[in-house]
Design goal:
With 211 residues, this protein is an alpha/beta fold. The chain has ten helices and nine strands. The protein has a four-stranded parallel sheet with strand order 3-2-1-9. A three-stranded parallel sheet has the order 6-7-8. Strand 6, helix 6 (111-119) and strand 7 form a beta-alpha-beta unit. Helix 2 packs across helix 3 (46-56), helix 2 (19-31) crosses helix 10 (190-207) and helix 4 (70-78) packs parallel to helix 5 (91-99). The two termini are 23 Å apart. Bound molecules: 3-phosphoglyceric acid (3PG). 3-phosphoglyceric acid binds next to strand 9.
């Protein structure tokens, strides 16, 4: 899974009120080249969207995001989540993912949280909210102490600052909602999502030296 993130270093958020929208958004992202997606548990229908996307878009690796409790983690795993992302580090959520043998990527914003994650065996952590928690400079500082931890900055990442984050050796991938704007989803303008995904992938390929 972590190897996959390294080669697919942009993780879009999928937030949908219904299954059709979730499927359309995910297919649009995959068409644009982004095949690791995070379905966020922020709507009533999120778990059914997660299940539908995990089963209906086999080209995609589908994780659950905004997982706040162990109950939500277990329900997400049951729905087919391939990884679990949270905005913060809550031990029972990490343990639920570890018990199911899938990656937990909890959010951290301080050294103490990184160290707690490290002691739970985690070597990939979400850095959230990236732009407010210190941005690239904070990641550099954390990198000097936690040398084997890689981060997924999320929160304020956009096409404009993506390359700055991805250029850091301790950034495994970046996450964000800029790839799936609500305005495009509401208008059914899925081509826009494909366009944003290809643009992000092009930036990632340049930074990671794949072109
Ligand atoms: C998240 O939970 O990962 C954030 O809401 C994403 O932040 P963004 O909307 O600034 O990309």
């Amino acid at each position: 899974m972590l190897d996959k993130l390294d080669s697919m270093p942009v993780v879009p958020l999928v937030q949908a009120d219904d299954i059709d929208t979730a499927l359309n958004v995910t297919r649009a992202l995959v068409e644009g080249g982004l095949s690791v997606v995070e379905v966020v548990l922020r709507t009533e229908a999120a778990l059914e969207c997660l299940e539908a996307v995990a089963a209906g878009v086999p080209e995609a690796t589908v994780g659950a995001g905004t997982v706040l409790s162990s109950e939500q983690a277990e329900a997400s795993i049951e729905a087919g989540a391939a990884f679990i992302v949270s905005p913060g580090l809550y031990v029972p959520v990490v343990e639920a993912a570890q018990a199911a043998d899938i990656p937990a990527i909890p959010g951290v914003a301080t050294a103490s949280e990184v160290q707690l994650g490290w002691n739970m065996g985690l070597r990939a952590l979400k850095f959230f909210p990236a732009s407010l928690a210190g941005g690239p400079l904070m990641l550099k500082a954390l990198g000097s102490a936690y040398r084997d931890v890689r981060f997924m900055p999320t929160g304020g990442v956009t096409a404009a600052n993506l390359s700055e984050y991805l250029a850091l050796p301790n950034v495994i991938a970046c996450g964000g909602s800029w790839l799936t704007p609500m305005s495009a989803i509401e208008a059914g303008y899925y081509e826009r999502i494909t366009q944003l995904a290809s643009e992000a992938m092009a930036i990632a390929n340049v930074v990671r030296g794949n072109v």
